[in-house]
């Protein structure tokens, strides 16, 4: 297994690294220059020695803002929380810019909201920016735009943002750095490898740990599951350990490695299946569910019910009668039109839709990602 890990890591050329608030701050809650300098020096060394491209997702803006503004604790009042993040984010970037500057690297700030991942054009623009930064000796440093992203445009969880960034740029690896050594088993020992994200693994999540960070271990496993489904490995390790990133990339047995399946999803499938938020749902009969699993398009004849509010081109989730997700895909029709054609063959569409032009498929198989 140690051999496998080394082999897997020897071929990594692009990695997303996420560091959490507790890892990037000291015990007093201030940004810890030793951690930031150490990370910058690891990243510079990996780029120089192996040409590895790194995109960094860093938390700590709110934590740094709280410390700087001498607030007794993280504000609960939303505008105050936004203001705290605005103050802290500039401190965070200043420190990273200085740390990378020592290695002749630039730090490029990218602040994102949920919309940047859900709107496909913005999603692709984000990817272009990350690639452009990486092409000119700059390390992209990504965080949620906490100063403006509130309520439903907010992720509130950088583990998930890091997972979506990994899928977006098709990085070969996601490293989640927190203040635990990895996923701990029942005896408190680090699980070196996770092959399946089954109930046994999920049971190892300790509730007391989850309450501390924004995502905790359960959030990390959810984020890791997204990356694993796309076909990439994830390593959860301790960001406080000196040289941790270099050690992880050298294939040392540190942290928990979450092993992906052999198949990697295409970029488009990643967006449709893992990132885009569905606008509606389509319930299909058993025959239709089986046909979808057999790589066929979604036809109106197998549709029983429709929910939500979607337009042509919007992401929808396709479920069976038991409510189990069968697939996600992009609908050719609005909800209103699917209501009209559900249960019918395409030869009836012209009359039902009072239109000469129509698609035979409600969702074409090229726009579908099947869940097994
Ligand atoms: N964006 C938040 C910050 O910079 C962190 C969110 C998280 O901990 O996942 O403070």
Pick out its properties.
372 residues, alpha/beta, five-stranded mixed β-sheet, 41% helix, 19% strand, binds glutamic acid
Walk across the major sheet and give the strand order.
3-4-2-1-5-7-8-6
Number of domains: 2
Strand content: 15-25%
Named CATH architecture of the largest domain: 3-Layer(aba) Sandwich
The number of distinct helices, counting runs of at least 4 residues, comes to 16
Helical content, roughly? Answer: 40-55%
**CATH homologous superfamily grouping of the largest domain:** Acetylglutamate kinase-like
Distance between the termini: 27 Å
Topology:
Layout: H1 2-10, E1 14-19, H2 21-24, H3 33-50, E2 53-58, H4 61-68, H5 78-101, E3 106-112, H6 115-118, H7 120-135, E4 138-144, H8 158-169, E5 173-178, E6 193-194, H9 199-202, H10 207-210, H11 216-230, E7 234-238, H12 244-249, E8 256-258, H13 267-275, E9 280-284, H14 286-293, E10 298-299, E11 303-308, E12 315-319, E13 325-330, H15 335-341, H16 349-353, E14 361-363, E15 368-370
Parallel strand pairs: 1-2, 1-5, 2-4, 3-4, 5-7, 6-8, 9-12
Antiparallel strand pairs: 7-8, 9-11, 10-14, 12-13, 13-15
Helix pairs in contact: 3-5, 4-5, 8-11, 8-13
Bound molecules: glutamic acid (GLU).
Describe this structure in words.
It is globular and about 70 Å long. With 372 residues, the chain is α/β, with parallel strands linked by helices. The chain starts with a helix and ends with a strand. A hairpin with a 5-residue loop joins strand 12 and strand 13. The longest helix is centred in the first third of the chain and has 24 residues. It folds into two domains: 268 residues, Carbamate kinase (3-Layer(aba) Sandwich), CATH 3.40.1160; 93 residues, Archaeosine Trna-guanine Transglycosylase, Chain: A, domain 4, CATH 2.30.130.10. It has an eight-stranded mixed sheet with strand order 3-4-2-1-5-7-8-6, sandwiched between helices. The structure holds glutamic acid.
